[in-house]
Amino acid sequence: MARAATTTDAFNAVAEPQRRRILTLLKGRERSVNELAGALRVSQTRVSKHLRVLRVVGLVSVREAGQQRLYTLDARGLKPIHDWVGGFEEFWSQSFDRLNAYVK
Amino acid sequence: MARAATTTDAFNAVAEPQRRRILTLLKGRERSVNELAGALRVSQTRVSKHLRVLRVVGLVSVREAGQQRLYTLDARGLKPIHDWVGGFEEFWSQSFDRLNAYVK
DNA sequence: TTGTTATATTCCGATATGGGCATATCTTTC
DNA sequence: GAAAGATATGCCCATATCGGAATATAACAA
To answer: Engineered SS bond to B32: which of A80, A83, B19, B68, CB 3.0-4.6 Å?
Structure first.
C-alpha cells in the first residue's frame, strides 16, 4: 500500500503548503482561479489541480460565473482537525511551562 | 517534484491516521514500542517506522530503558497546526454566510 | 556462551504525488 | 463563425510513501 491519497480527508489535503495558502486567501471572499494564481505567483494549472483536491475533500465549493469559476471557502471540514489537535493543548502548554521553569 | 516527505513538518506527519493514534496513546504517559503495537494491533515494524517519522519532526522523544525505548509525547509541534486551523474558526460556524463572518 | 526479547533498519513492490507542458472545453467578443 | 480568454484535464517524470518479510543490533537471561 502507498501513502493515502491527498483527497482522502482534510488532514491529507491540508498537508500541502500551497493548498493552505489557497484556503487562507479564500477567507472572506470568493476568488477566481486566475486571481489565486496571480496572488500565489504560480501557474494556472497548478492552482486548478490544488483546487480540485480541496473540492473533493469539501474544503471549497465552486460557482460558475461566465467563463470564470469562483471558489468559496467551506471551512467546516477543518473542524475535525481543530478538534483533534485541540485535544493536545494541555500538553504543549505543559511542555512550555516545563521549559520556562528550566530557563528560570 | 513529488509529494513532500512525511518528515517535512507536523502537518505531513500527522496526516497519517496511525500516527495520530500513536500520539493519542502517548497522552499522559510514555509507552514502549511493543506496548503501542499491542494497543494498536499492528506489527512492531510498522510502529517503529511511524515512531521514526514522529521523532524526526519532533512530536515524540525517546528514552532508553534497558532493551526498551520509551516514547514520550512532545506536543509543542502541534501548536502551529492548531494556530493555523484556529484562524478559520469563525468561518466554519457560519460557513454558508462568508461575508457575514468576514465582517465580524 | 547461547538463546531470547525489544527495537530498528533494509530491501521490495505498488501507488499517488506535484509540476510542466500541451490540449480540450466552455464562454465571451469581434 | 473565428479568435481570445478562463479553466480543467491528460500525459510524463522523479520521488517517497506504507506495508511486509527478513535481517541487524542491542540488552538481558540461563
So the answer is: B68
Distance CA A73, CA A76 (A): 9
Cross-chain residue pair A11–B15, CB shorter than 8 Å: yes
**Which of A6, A8, A46, A85 to mutate: most B Cβ within 10 Å?**
A85
Question: Helix, strand, or coil here: A29?
Answer: coil
Which residue type is seen at A66? G
Q: What are phi and psi of A59, to 5 degrees?
A: -85, -15
Calpha distance A54→A23 (Å, rounded): 9
Q: Please compute the mean of the pLDDT values over residues A29-43 and round it to a whole number.
A: 96
Q: Which residues pair with B69 in a beta bridge?
A: B64
* Amino acid at the residue A65: A
Vertex A58 angle, CA B59 and A1, to 5°: 55
> Which tens digits make up the pLDDT trace of B70-86?
999 999 999 999 999 99
- What are the tens digits of pLDDT across the range B41-72? 999 999 999 999 999 999 999 999 999 999 99
Least CB–CB distance from B84: residue in A4, A12, A20: A20
Entry pTM: 0.89
Size of chain B, expressed as the number of residues it contains? 104
Of the candidates B43, B1, B51, B45, the residue with the CA atom closest to the CA atom of residue B21: B51
